[in-house]
């Protein structure tokens, strides 16, 4: 979940709205295939991603919304104590809209909700869109924009860039990164450019926040050099001016978030020297008395002090929230404070004095044990930019981190407030044929998990010894399913093995030198006697026949390919070389590889080679837009599967009653739409098993059926965790 540099986009008008029914924006000309009814649920992990914004509704007790950088938006259901996903209807073609740049509520109309969607502002990503709802996100109407947004770019934890005008509920403001300020006079149906006295930059941050202070609207500008103005205001609809007397200097270069105390008529603003969430080393907190124009610095602790080990305590400031009931009471958060660990400061006297809530915090992460990160206790957090204070409960504070949302009701005891919110970017899925767990998963940022239950966060948390930040490979020995290997980015080695089905792990005794900088996919053969480990493009694969104690280079293995083990014959491995469009096979336990079928699609990073369980040499090759191919002779020849137009990923599950072949699960297309399909007749026919309410954007990483439960399928998403479906 890391952003890359944005690109310049041209400006600027809104498109016509598209009617949405039952939460599903129907796109013109799109066919909707009938299918089998399925019940879809999340495999519970417990957050696992960056919560970029939390917004309590100011006029409705218990109503709140959350946004994430790549995983959509959620509504809090106070009655059930759960977050309800609001954007799962976003389909494959609209994958870029699953990142939420900003959200807004209307204080005067509690059922209205607005979302600004768009994950990347890159040349390869599409334009943004605004969703608007009259029923708290149950159904939507959509307006496509002609500009790009950047929910997973730098600055994604800044304030809300979307705002309902405090003087007129029909008027909305939208701040963009590279195209200035937009205004809508018809509740988000159409948008027009508004002049702000600044010059947008192609690689800049643009507008970082919009906030109402009484009847005045303020906008933060993220592209100041520290000497020019970065906070602007308007009391009308067209004319904006720089706020007089505002702070300058490195510590106040980028306004991150702002909150208004209506009792004291003071606007609090947090600042940093960079937009974050990474890269901040300086920051400050200031307040503006809007009645007099007087600025006062109220920074709790100035960055730059000395840490206990003699280092520098560098950080910026992130979130800020005011108490709607108690004048002068507010909370602010530090951000990017790695040495001394981030905290939330609280003041009850308008910022004259502060208390660090971290100093007395007691954490209970028993519901999501991965938050111990392989140790025995969690830390207070990091990437704390989302910070909110319940307007109906002065002691109810929540803050987001890079992995969860913490909350307290007494300012001392903290626990995750994450039920229903799942944001993992999932890379690998394995469903063992035996054992306690029906699922093992590998994800970005949180490594591998052992799911002994699908309805609770794994009790063992992240796989440890070593802990991986991101998983790059996960493989189970088909004939010895208690043996599992994994690879990823670790602090103490990048590979590990397990002989109890993934419950406990031990690092490989050694690893190839290239594994330190480019750990890639790994495979174990059918009986666990041989390992093949692949690395980045241009690097040769390596083989171990002693459980990772020694590794030797395999010169004939195609560089950068994904190794696939035959599920029956321990001597056989396979690989697909996307640079030449050739299937390679080994019949000597991975010592040598020879070319087989060739002339297939080349240059496509989204391919997958899969071996059918219980069979030797039965291979299926997904080639994205070039369809699905099959080999029954170990890759010597391949034949296209005529029933499939496009294939992104394929998996196998328990055969249907009376069927001789495993069930096939496909993310791809048999006609005009990309969806999830199942075949019980060896790919002769397919049945769609998801629906238009359950699409989850880009879902091309992995899919697998359960070898013990016919019809059950596990689906990897890029931001909505692991979905699993069962026939109704």
Short description:
With 728 residues, this protein is mostly beta strands. The chain is 0% helix and 38% strand. It has no helices and 61 strands.
Structure notes:
- The protein is mostly beta strands and 728 residues long.
- The protein is 0% helix and 38% strand.
- The chain has a domain at 56-416: Methylamine Dehydrogenase, Chain H (7 Propeller), CATH 2.130.10.10.
- It has a five-stranded antiparallel sheet with strand order 1-12-11-10-9, with no helix packed on it. The protein has a five-stranded mixed sheet with strand order 31-35-34-33-32, with no helix packed on it. Strands 4-61-60-59 form a four-stranded antiparallel sheet, with no helix packed on it.
- A hairpin with a 3-residue loop joins strand 37 and strand 38 (447-451).
Our measurement of the CA-to-CA distance between the termini, rounded to an integer number of angstroms, reads: 34 Å
CATH architecture of the domain at 56-416: 7 Propeller
Percent in helix: under 10%
The third-level CATH topology of the domain at 56-416 is: Methylamine Dehydrogenase, Chain H
For CATH, the homologous superfamily of the domain at 56-416 is named as YVTN repeat-like/Quinoprotein amine dehydrogenase
Shape descriptor reads globular
Rg over C-alpha atoms, rounded to the nearest angstrom: 26 Å
- CATH top-level class of the domain at 56-416: Mainly Beta
Number of helices: 0
Largest sheet: 5 strands, antiparallel
pLDDT average, as an integer?
Answer: 93
